[in-house]
Design brief:
Length: 642
């Protein structure tokens, strides 16, 4: 059972925020996320990091300005995810408004794979461009850039991925993570990097006294796209990224977003006026990504570039249908993966009375569909068992199935990572005996660095790889699957310890009845939450006063807030916790005071009755019905509190 772990909340930071007018619940939440000064919460455009320290941004701006003046032809080489699609749309819209002759192509992941490969260069050459501009890719395209140079095309690289040991020989590279770049915003998404390049270009054109085409598109008009790509790429929402996202959301809510984003929200039945970062990440992003996963991301980019509502709506409907298809494929893949992992669980679970196995060893491999009683197509699963207290799946999950869809393995890896709290890599069969893999990781293991370590120890295993701390992609030979799995197990076992692998649910502690109100829910609703700045959730004891099933699979609840010093919350506090404001109960004190506050709540995906008293992890939400708003708790996790 996961540990419920309240975050540390520095009292001095809370007091500073209270003194600056923040509500109690909001002050606690922000303090728990490292906010010590109210200026860190400034989301005005004036708070954006200046571009001066973004290496080569001004140099690229000069090259772009010269090329536009010389009427050279640009071709954008985009990535096939939401960040790449939005970065492409920002590049095309922005540069076109500055007078550039520009078009784009996006590699089909099933034919060409990722990035500016030599094959993509030859495909691009058919358009006869003068300049190739990469967005959200290119930093690892050493061979592709060399081929473009050989064919007489210049390459401008804009990317945010971590570079390898060798940089491509491009005419110019803008990447906050390249060597020698002192720009503090290391977590810019690819779309954010492209936006900064446009800021530099606008400044350069102004110094030259040049007027842009039709006065030029105001760059703030691109912030809806920047917000979408930033959230969808799950980069850390540091202050700079929160500014970009908040400013983009404000434009969406005000009805000033591009037709494509509006259409994608509407097809998902989301309110434009109440759009949130969660809507971008869990509603718009998946529909946009569906094009790159199952079809061709050009469809998604066309949606973002559409200028009329009718065209955008038509394309959004196609993307919505692709997303529904993706969900079905994902569900089947997840079922087969979970069945395989359960088979491992049964094989390594000790017999009654036996000691649980310890030490490093291969728990299971080559789980075949012919296995009696095993309804799964997963053909190969590797898992290492480490220690008596860890789950039988060990420190990582490495899976391959010949029927899995290349475009969906990243989602599968993410789901498995979340469920088992282990780094997970899922592979699908590609062409010519090659496997494409997509991985997701947990805190404690930098996935790209872990793959780099495997590559350095075993240079023959990984054909190519790239990514970030939390996500990465790679290619290996199918014949090397077992060897790669063993090597990755070895590395992950070295880098992770039992505390890293322990499942825990982080919360922002308990709320007092006075803090649990509609006003607090509205305040929290209006903030930007995401990677590195997680949406708040709290934990309290409740008496279940009433409960009924709604929609056949959800529980509608009426809860009574439990107060008193014997709250189960203190049982969850870690040893040495500094949260000692409440006294320890004595034998003479009542165990529970149930004369608390009534509050409505809902538990999704659960229709079995709850016990009379629960300890719940929940978030505050604004429930709207017939034009009336009310507070509703969304139960994220619960356990019997008796």
């Amino acid at each position: 059972m996961p540990e419920i772990a309240p975050r540390s909340i520095p009292a001095s930071a809370v007091q500073h925020l209270l003194d600056n007018g923040y509500a109690s619940a909001l002050a606690k939440v922000f303090a728990a996320r490292g906010i010590t000064d109210s200026r860190q919460l400034d989301t005005s455009l004036a708070g954006l990091l200046p571009l001066d320290s973004l290496k080569n941004a001004r140099e690229m701006a000069c090259l772009l300005a010269d090329a536009i003046a010389a009427k050279k032809k640009f071709l954008v080489i985009a990535d096939y995810d939401a960040d790449g699609a939005t970065a492409c749309a920002v590049a095309v819209r922005g540069l076109r408004s500055f007078g550039a002759q520009i078009d784009f192509i996006v590699p089909n992941r099933f034919e060409y794979g990722y990035g500016l490969t030599p094959e993509i260069v030859h495909l691009a050459a058919q358009r006869k461009p003068d300049i190739l501009l990469t967005v959200d890719n290119g930093i690892a395209s050493v061979e592709g850039v060399a081929e473009a140079n050989r064919l007489g095309m210049q390459v401008f690289v804009t990317d945010h991925h971590l570079p390898g040991d060798t940089l491509p020989d491009a005419a110019c590279i803008v990447n906050p993570n390249q060597p020698g770049c002192e720009f503090p915003g290391k977590h810019l998404a690819g779309v954010g990097v492209m936006f900064y390049v446009l800021l530099a270009l606008r400044a350069e054109l102004r110094t030259r006294g040049q007027k842009t085409k039709d006065g030029g598109q105001r760059l703030v008009d691109l912030l809806d796209l920047v917000a979408l790509g930033t959230v969808a790429d799950v980069v850390k929402l540091d202050q700079n990224n929160r500014i970009l996202v908040q400013q983009g959301l404000q434009r969406i809510r005000a009805g000033r977003a591009c037709a494509g984003i509006n259409a994608l929200l509407q097809v998902a039945k989301k309110s434009l006026g109440k759009a949130s970062s969660q809507d971008l990440g869990f509603t718009v992003g998946p529909r946009l990504n569906a094009a790159g996963r199952l079809d061709d991301m050009s469809l998604g980019i066309d949606c973002l570039l559409a200028d009329d509502d009718a065209t955008a709506t038509q394309i959004a409907a196609k993307l919505d249908a692709l997303n529904r298809e993706r969900r079905g494929i994902e569900a089947n893949m997840q079922d087969s993966a979970l069945a395989a992992l359960e088979q491992i669980n049964r094989r390594v679970r000790p017999r009654h009375g036996a000691a649980e196995p310890t030490g490093a060893g291969v728990a299971a491999s080559h789980l075949l569909p012919q296995t009696a009683g095993f309804a799964s197509n997963v053909s190969k699963v590797r898992s290492t068992h480490h220690g008596a207290h860890s789950a039988p799946y060990g420190s990582c999950l490495v899976l391959f199935d010949e029927t899995w869809h290349q475009g969906v393995i990243g989602i599968l890896a993410s789901r498995l990572k979340d469920q088992f709290h282990r780094p997970a890599i899922a592979f699908a069969r590609a062409n010519n005996g090659e496997l494409k893999g997509s991985g997701r990781s947990i805190a404690g293991l930098h996935l790209r660095d872990a793959l780099d370590l495997v590559s350095k120890r075993h240079p023959e295993l990984i054909r190519k790889f790239g990514g970030h701390a939390a996500a990465a992609g790679l290619s290996i030979a199918e014949a090397d699957f077992e060897n790669f799995a063993a090597a990755f197990e070895q590395v992950s076992g070295e880098l992770l310890d039992e505390s890293d692998l322990a499942q825990r649910i982080e919360t922002d502690g308990a709320l007092e009845p006075a803090e649990m109100n509609l006003g607090a829910a509205r305040l929290l609703d209006g903030q930007v939450w995401g990677q590195g700045f997680p949406a708040p959730q709290f934990n309290n004891d409740f008496v279940v006063q009433n409960q009924r099933v709604v929609g056949e699979k959800h529980l509608k609840l009426q809860l009574r807030h439990v107060t008193g010093t014997a709250s189960r919350l203190r049982e969850q506090l870690p040893s040495g916790s500094s949260r000692t404001e409440e006294p320890t109960p004595t034998a003479s004190e009542p165990m529970l005071n149930t004369q608390g506050k009534f509050v409505d709540a809902i538990l999704f995906g659960h229709n079995e009755p709850l016990p009379g008293q629960i300890h719940a992890v929940y978030s505050l939400s604004v429930n709207e019905y017939n034009g009336t708003q009310s507070l509703q708790l969304i139960i994220r996790h619960w356990r019997d509190a008796m």
